[in-house]
Structures
1.
Amino acid sequence: MSDPGSWLLGLGLLALVVGLIVYWLIALVVLIIPTWRICDRAGFSGALALFHLLPGIGSLIVLAVLAFGTWPNGEGKPADRGGQ
């Protein structure tokens, strides 16, 4: 016969798994949307932001491409200071 408290352990494990999935989805939305816009403005395909879906290494790939790649739209230029 099973332990009467085992259902509580199962419920806690389920809550942990669901919580981790929700946290992961929120983190992805927070990362993917801004990265998509940055990639578009830099001249890259916005789909580059989908590398964030790869656990562990995906964000490093995106950062490496943005940091060390040649931007098709050119590097950011300082704002015009109006005659200085």
2.
Amino acid sequence: MDKKPKFEEQMKKLQQIVEKLEKNDVELDDSIALYEEGLKLSRELKKQLSAFEEKIAKINKGEEDE
């Protein structure tokens, strides 16, 4: 079974990528690969955040109806 990493794990990975890129001690090819991986993670995290926000809105809307 292919288990998707949790939001926090993905966030930590993205933070590690950013830290590596900020150090400027990575070769250009590696920097581009890290940037690409970070961009993919960032997009996935944004999707997950949107889904969380929608879920919270639905929960709150259910409470308003009562």
3.
Amino acid sequence: MARWKARSAVYVAASQIGCEGLGLLRNIILARLLGPSEMGVFATLAITLSLLDMISDLGPDRLLIQAEDGDLEEFQATAQTLLAARGLVCSLLLAAIAYPAAALLGNPSLSWMIAALGAVAGIRGLLHLDCKRIQRNHDFRSSMIVELASAGMTTAAVFLLMQHIHDASAFVWISLLQVVILVIASHLVAGRRYWLTYRPEIAGRLFRFGWPLACNSLIMFGALQGDRLVVLASATAADLGRYAVAFQLTMVPTLLISRIASTVLLPVLARSQNSPQKFAARLDLISAVLGLIALTFTLAVMWTGNLAIGLLYGDVFQVTPAVIRWLAIMQGLRILRAVPSLTAMARADSLNPLASNVLRLTGIIAAATVGLSGWGLEAIAAAGCGGEVVALIGSALLLQCRQGINPAAIWKASALFAAGISLGWLAMGNVFVVQAGAVGLAGAIVLLAILRILRIARTSEIVRVSPATPELRAMLVDKGI
């Protein structure tokens, strides 16, 4: 069983890394062919589709996995009916708002593209959910095949497609191709026939399960996409194209780090939730590890982010040094914010991550204020960082209030992160200092890792050789020794 679960985790990781990597590759190809202005229009279409997709997601595939009777064919068929209905409603809605939205954005040519995205939503509604259902048995192979087939074939098709299309309408055709392959693949790997039915009691459960997810998705959309919405409303299409490229380049590694951390570290904390001493020790270790990862990632992006943008996308997509620094700090704070969120989830407290995302919206409000006042991309990115700081502090304090967990380890990791970032910012512009800092940082990480291992080994040795007092026996049981 343990080997099977480990293999399942590999399938999940391979799917996530493969899809994110192929998506990044597609955007690099398109950016080099389209240029900043058309990529800004491209980003506008992506935001529109993402918004509708997130706020209409009732999560029938997730309840299919979690419900005790989710394996029943009628349950799956009802979930597929709701998915198809959602696709139809989204199609009609996109067709209805296409012209007004294009007029509001000041680009009438967008109207047919937004309407055409309705076909993407409608086709997605025909997805066969059998590849989701079998995840009940920790079988992720079908999902991996479906997702990687869609991402891989679409990426390959981009090379052919871009020989004939040289504007932002490429997003429409790429999205259509991707969703068609996704739906076809889901039917090919399915072990059951595809059929639709409607059972009121099951549909009611799906709605009750899904509406909080839809509300949370709206908040998540604001937290993740809000900065780009502000840029869309306050800057040119070219500025949006550059900002979107820089944002994605920094966000993709952050998402992967957060997902892997959640998969690996959440069970570690959850297993020790009934032992305060062990829980505190593991929280201290996780805070230190994610804090170091956040600092390393942030400094790397601060020092080399624009160079990477130039190499991958072209020099025309490079942003000002201040923008890349603020974006780097923003993503580093998101990695650090995973610590209190994971800790809360280990105690089955799902309110903490939701509250954290709500607090993150303060940064969007600040970004809208400075962006619409004409302060530029640097101020928008800096305001986003402020929102992340508020979210991190609020999440840690909420953890203390609701769960009684001392957030000292989180404050320590945050202080080290702030100190490291401050030194890294001061070092910008001095190549020798940057190089020396990189070497010093790598050495410090190795040294801290060695000290941590020695500390754990020393503690274990002391526990093993000390007299077996009742208190010590209780500690041995608690530590599993």
